[in-house]
Structures are given as C-alpha cells and as structure tokens.
Design brief:
The chain has helices spanning 14-19, 35-47, 65-71, 74-77, 86-95, 136-141, 159-176, and strands spanning 23-30, 50-56, 80-83, 99-103, 110-111, 123-127, 144-147. It is an alpha/beta fold. GO terms for molecular function: RNA binding; RNA methyltransferase activity.
C-alpha cells in the first residue's frame, strides 16, 4: 500500500469548500473554554462539510493562534457565527426550523446509536463546557438530547472527542438517507 499525498486526496480549496453543498448539521459550542478544543471541532466540521459552527458565551472566536493550531485553517473554510448566549442561539435555530439536540447525559436521553435522523430535516447539536456540560436552561430549550453510551469508570469525554463521535455518527446516518454532503 502506498500512502496518499495531498495531491492524491484532491482536497477542495477554501473557495470550493465554501461553494459546495453542506451536510444539514450545525454544531453549537456552549461556553467551551479550550481554544484547542474549538479548533479541533472546526477541523472535524470541515472534514464532514458541516453547515456551520455557532460559538457561544466564553467560547473563543477566530482568529486565535490556539484555534488555528488544531483547526489547521478549517476556521477559514467552515462558516461560523458568534452568539453571546447559547439559549438565544438555540431559540434562533429553532425559529429557523432546525431540530436542536443537546449532547448530554439526561433522563430519557436517546442513545446516539438509537438516534435516527429524518430525511429533509436540519439538525443542530449543542456541545457543552468541559466541566459543566450543556447548561440546564439550554437542555430545557432543546428538542431532545442524545447521549454517547459509556461503559468505563469515567462518564465523560473530551468535548472535541464527543464532537468527532457525534458528527461522524450523524453524518453517516444522513449519508444513508442521501442527506450528507459528499
């Protein structure tokens, strides 16, 4: 096997990426403290052509060297907005017709493996602060909650790891029903 180089991968330019179809998924970051986590989320969103990122509260916004270190330029390709309050962002997305799901451990959450997206629907997932998770008032405003099953001694994952798992899973499910960007 020969390892592929950048030319072999036929990567899109930033302009081509901006003009391309996007996966009907938006990621909302609720007061994420680590700029490296923010950058990692941007990079994952770029990989799956996620429709955008909403940075809320204390979540840092580009340009920042620490974001760029892990985003590797994805902060330039992925559309993003800033909203001072996550609750306002969730309400705005819902008013625009998005189904908003918090990624959180709550009573009656839907396990990620059991989540089935509907054709024609747009989704937003809210990822929370590294210590406190998604704020309770934001959880209350969401249309539902999805949870990543965990079976070890720890019952939390790094927010960028959580983003990768959730985005990958939802992307695959949307692709299966012909809704994901390819």
């Amino acid at each position: 096997m020969r390892k592929l180089n950048v030319t072999d991968l036929h990567r899109l330019s930033v302009d081509e990426y901006k003009a391309s179809d996007k996966t009907p998924l938006v990621v909302v970051l609720d007061n994420v403290r680590s700029l490296h986590n923010v950058g990692s989320v941007f990079r994952t969103c770029d990989a799956f052509r996620v429709g955008g990122v909403v940075l809320c509260g204390i979540t840092a916004v580009p340009p920042q060297p620490e974001i760029h270190k892990t985003a590797l330029g994805a902060e330039d390709s992925v559309d993003w907005t800033y909203e001072a309050d996550t609750l306002d962002a969730v309400r705005r997305l819902k008013a625009q017709g998005w189904t908003v799901l918090a990624v959180e451990q709550v009573e009656a959450s839907t396990m990620l493996g059991d989540f089935v997206p509907c054709k024609g629907r747009h989704y937003a997932v809210v990822l929370g602060n590294e210590v406190k998770g998604v704020r309770q008032d934001v959880v209350d405003e969401c249309d539902g909650c999805i949870e990543i099953p965990q079976h070890g001694t720890k019952h939390s994952l790094n927010v960028s790891v959580t983003a990768g798992i959730v985005i990958w899973d939802i992307y695959n499910k949307l692709a299966a029903i012909g809704e994901a960007a390819s």
